[in-house]
Amino acid sequence: MNTRSKYKTKQREILLGYLKDKSGVHVTANDVCEYCKNQGSSIGQSTIYRHLESLVDEGIINKYIIDANSPACFEYVGEEVHEDGEVCFHCKCEKCGKLIHLHCDVLKDIKYHLFEDHKFELNSMRTVFYGVCEDCQIHT
Amino acid sequence: MNTRSKYKTKQREILLGYLKDKSGVHVTANDVCEYCKNQGSSIGQSTIYRHLESLVDEGIINKYIIDANSPACFEYVGEEVHEDGEVCFHCKCEKCGKLIHLHCDVLKDIKYHLFEDHKFELNSMRTVFYGVCEDCQIHT
DNA sequence: CTAAGTGCAAAATGTTTGCATACTT
DNA sequence: AAGTATGCAAACATTTTGCACTTAG
Predict the structure, then answer these.
(1) pLDDT (tens digit, 9 = 90+) per residue, A5-49?
(2) How far apart are CA B6 and CA A6, in angstroms?
(3) Are B127 and A128 an interchain contact pair (Cβ–Cβ within 8 Å)?
(4) Which of A86, A127, B65, B102 is 20 to 30 A from B124 (CA-CA)?
(5) Looking at beta carbons, which residues of chain A come within 8 Å of B1?
(6) Could you tell me if A119 lies within 8 Å of chain B, comparing CB atoms?
(7) What is the pLDDT of residues A90-120, one digit of tens each?
(8) Which of strand C's nucleotides are less than 7 A from any protein C-beta?
(9) What is the β-pairing status of strands B89-93 and B128-132?
(10) DSSP letter at A5?
(11) Which residues on adjacent β-strands are paired with residue A101?
(12) What residues are paired with A74 via a beta bridge?
C-alpha cells in the first residue's frame, strides 16, 4: 500500500509531465506507453503501472474504473489540495464505449440535492452515468 | 449489445432465482458458479457471464465495479416493468454496500439536462450513484 | 425445424510480479 | 554502498469468444 516514490527519476518526470500536460483529460496506462514510445524515451509498462499507483496513492492523480474490461483512466488533479468545489462527472456510452468528461455547474447541484434531500453524500469521482452519446443516437 | 434472452431455460431460472434470493447482497460471477456446483446443477461459466450481461441489459440486475482487479458484483433490483416516464435511480453506499432506490422529480431533471445540454441519453436503470449513506456518515 | 442457449477450452485483456540490472542518494 | 527504480518476460485473474452440441418454441 505504501507505494510513494522516494527517488526523482527520469521516468517519473516524463510520466508526471505528460499527465500534467493532459490535465482535464482521461489517460490510460496504454496512452502513457504510446506517448513514451513516440518520444523515443520508452518506459516499461511495469514502471508506468507502478508510478500510476504511487501517484494515486499520493493524491496527485485520480483513477477511474469505468468498466471491468476497459482500462482504468487516470487524470491529473494536481499536487495542491483540492477543497470542495471540484465536481466532475463521467458519462459512458453504452454503445461505443466512449467516455465523456463533464464539468458542469448544473451537475454540481445534483451533489447538493442528494445530500440535502436524501442525506446521501455523493462521490462524484466514482459515479458514472451510463447512456447513449450523441454520435450513437444518430447512427442507430 | 442486444443481449436480451428470449427462451426460458433451466439455467436462467436457477441463476435468476439465486440472484433474487440474494437481493440486497453482492454476488460475483464466481459466487454463482459455486452455488450451482453445490446444487448439483452446474452451469458453465460462459453461460453465467452471458446471462449476467443480459440481465444487466434488461435492468433486472445491476453491475458494480469496485476495483479493476476484483471481480464485478451483481445485485438483483427487480423485474417490474418501468414505463417510459419512470425514472429510477440507485444509490450505492460505498461503506455498507446498501442499495437505495430513489424516485425523485429533481433527479428526473438530470436526465433532461443531460439530453438537452450534453446530448447524452441517460440510462437511469443502469446508472448508479456512489457515495456514503446517512447511517454510514454518522458511524464514521 | 430454426433460432437461441449451452459448455468446454482457448483467447483476450489489463494489470501485477519475480528477478537481475541500473540508477539515486 | 544501500536502498530504490527499472524493464523484461512470465504470471494472474477475470471475462470473452469460437465452435460443436443441445434445447425451447
Answers:
(1) 889 999 999 999 999 998 878 899 999 999 998 888 889 999 999
(2) 57
(3) yes
(4) A86
(5) 94-95
(6) yes
(7) 888 877 777 788 878 877 888 899 999 999 9
(8) 3-9, 13-18, 23-25
(9) parallel
(10) -
(11) A90
(12) A27, A63
Find and list the nucleotides of strand D having atoms within 7 Å of a protein beta carbon. 3-9, 13-18, 23-25
A chain contacts of residue B104, beta-carbon cutoff 8 Å: 117-118
Residue with cell 487516470: A74
CA-to-C1' distance for A129 and C18, Å?
40
Residues of chain A with CATH 3.30.1490.190: 84-140
How much is the pLDDT for B93?
Answer: 83
Instruction: Answer whether B110 touches A (CB < 8 Å).
Output: yes
Which chain B residues contact residue A116 at CB under 8 A? Answer: none
pLDDT tens string, chain B, 140 residues long: the values are 567 888 999 999 999 999 999 987 889 999 999 999 888 888 999 999 999 999 998 889 988 876 777 889 898 987 665 555 566 778 888 777 777 878 788 778 888 999 999 999 988 767 888 888 899 888 66
The fourth-level CATH superfamily of domain A84-140 is Ferric-uptake regulator, C-terminal dimerisarion domain (3.30.1490.190)
Give the distance from CA B112 to its chain's centroid. Answer: 23
Residue ranges, comma separated, of all CATH 1.10.10.10 domains in chain B are 1-82
Write out residues whose CB is closer than 7 A to strand C: A 7-10, 28-30, 45-46, 49-50, 53, 69-72; B 5-7, 9-12, 42-47, 50-51, 68-69
Q: Do B107 and A106 touch (CB under 8 A)?
A: no
Report whether pLDDT(A140) > 80: no
φ, ψ (nearest 5 deg) of residue B102: -120, 130
CATH 1.10.10.10 fits B1-82, yes or no: yes
Nearest CA among A36, A68, A65 for reference residue A51: A36
